[in-house]
Amino acid sequence: MKIDFATDTDYLYILDRDKHIVETLIRSKINEKEILILRDEGQEIGWMRYGYFWDNTPFMNMIWIDEEYRGQGMGEEVVTYWEKLMSERGFKTVMTSTQSNEGAQHFYRKLGYRDVGCLLQENEPLEVILSKQI
Fold it and tell me: Among 70, 109, 113, 117, which residue's beta carbon has the most beta carbons within 10 A?
C-alpha cells in the first residue's frame, strides 16, 4: 500500500464514495492537500480527510478503506502517517471524533487518543471527541 496526497485524478473516486462532504468542497480539499489517498498497485482503495478544529488543530474528519481491504492495518498506517505529517508541520495535538455507537472509538483509543468531550445533536448518537498529543 502507498499513501499519497489526493490529486484531481482522485476526484471521481472520492465523489463516488465520500457521502459526508459537500461536493463543492472536494476540489478545495484536494488543492489544500487535506485528503490522503491509499493506493494498492496504483488503484485507489481508501482515503483519509482532515481539516482544522478552531482553525488551529488538525482534525481527522473521515477514514475510509474499501471493504475488501479492511482489517489489514491500513487504517492505523494512514493515521500514523497523518500524525507524522502534522508533527512535521509543527502541530503538537491532533483530534478526531466518532459516534458513540460506532466501534471506531476503540480503534482511536488503541492508537492513544483520549476522550476530551462530546457533542449531542438532535436525533443523532452522541459524538465523542478525541484528542492526542503527538
Answer: 113
